[in-house]
């Protein structure tokens, strides 16, 4: 019987799935609904990973809490509308399914920490057949926005795994900063929405080049960092 003694927590957008095109499209529709024109796609990609209202607030030209709430609501409607299109695509990054299986076989518990809503996470789990795969799912519905450490702290509490045996895997500086604040290990992925050099500057302890090498890298990373602390 496998003994689960480690926890790997994954971000979703930009880490597990490539959703940038739908997020940019929905944000553009939301802005247009409020006469704001269109946000720059590169600026939208910069805020992927934050909770929705926080993300919208950072995109607006001026602080406006009420407008941010209205635009966020319009974004939800637009995003849900895009998901009704049978041709809508949010593919898993290559090797993701194999990496999750390999980590589980090697004694890792799996979790999710994301700026998506619970509805969005449930939809992803349904779409890719991930039922029962994640022992903890932390979303924007019940936690402060990244980089606040709340998501990781709750994930560790629910799984019973301590910070020294927990690895946060993500593609943005918000993921890396959250990991450092929670006292966990931080593994950045280079295929997401923030450049590798920014992940390193934000505190990533290592960078994963692809999913196929990630399981072995994750184990080696914890062993090396554990030895360094002795």
What attributes does this structure have?
6-stranded parallel β-sheet, 230 residues, globular, 2 domains, Rossmann fold, 10 helices, DNA polymerase, domain 1, alpha/beta, 12% strand
User: What is the N-to-C succession of helices and strands?
Assistant: EHHHHHEHEHEHEHEH
Mean pLDDT: 93
Q: What is the terminal-to-terminal distance?
A: 29 Å
List how many beta strands DSSP finds. Answer: 6
Instruction: Kindly estimate the percentage of residues that lie in beta strands according to DSSP.
Output: 5-15%
Briefly characterize the structure.
With 230 residues, this protein is an alpha/beta fold. The protein has helices spanning 20-33, 41-47, 52-59, 65-83, 96-105, 118-128, 150-159, 173-182, 196-201, 214-229; strands spanning 6-10, 108-113, 136-138, 166-170, 185-189, 206-208.
Note down, in words, how this protein is organized.
The protein is of the alpha/beta class and 230 residues long. The chain folds into 2 domains: 152 residues, HAD superfamily/HAD-like (Rossmann fold); 64 residues, DNA polymerase, domain 1, CATH 1.10.150. The chain has 10 helices and 6 strands; from the N terminus they run E-H-H-H-H-H-E-H-E-H-E-H-E-H-E-H. Strands 3-2-1-4-5-6 form a 6-stranded parallel sheet, sandwiched between helices. The protein starts with 5 loop residues before the first strand and ends with a helix. The mean pLDDT is 93.
């Amino acid at each position: 019987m496998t003994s689960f003694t480690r926890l790997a927590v994954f971000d979703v957008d930009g880490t597990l799935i490539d959703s940038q095109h739908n997020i940019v499209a929905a944000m553009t529709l939301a802005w247009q609904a409020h006469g704001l024109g269109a946000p720059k796609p590169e600026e939208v990609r910069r805020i992927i990973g934050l909770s929705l209202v926080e993300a919208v607030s950072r995109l607006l030209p001026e602080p406006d809490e009420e407008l941010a709430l209205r635009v966020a609501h319009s974004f939800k409607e637009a995003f849900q509308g895009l998901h009704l299109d049978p041709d809508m695509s949010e593919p898993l990054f290559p090797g993701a399914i194999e990496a999750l299986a390999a980590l589980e076989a090697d004694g890792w518990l799996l979790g999710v920490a994301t700026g998506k809503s619970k509805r969005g996470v449930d939809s992803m789990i349904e779409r890719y057949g991930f039922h029962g795969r994640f022992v903890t799912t932390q979303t924007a519905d019940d936690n402060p926005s990244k980089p606040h450490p709340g998501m990781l702290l709750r994930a560790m509490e629910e799984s019973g795994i301590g910070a020294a045996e927990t690895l946060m895997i993500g593609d943005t500086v918000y993921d890396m900063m959250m990991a450092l604040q929670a006292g966990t290990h931080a593994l950045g992925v280079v295929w997401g929405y923030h450049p590798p050099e920014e992940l390193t500057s934000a505190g990533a302890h290592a960078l994963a080049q692809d999913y196929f090498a990630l399981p072995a890298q994750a184990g080696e990373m914890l062993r090396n960092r554990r030895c360094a602390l002795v």
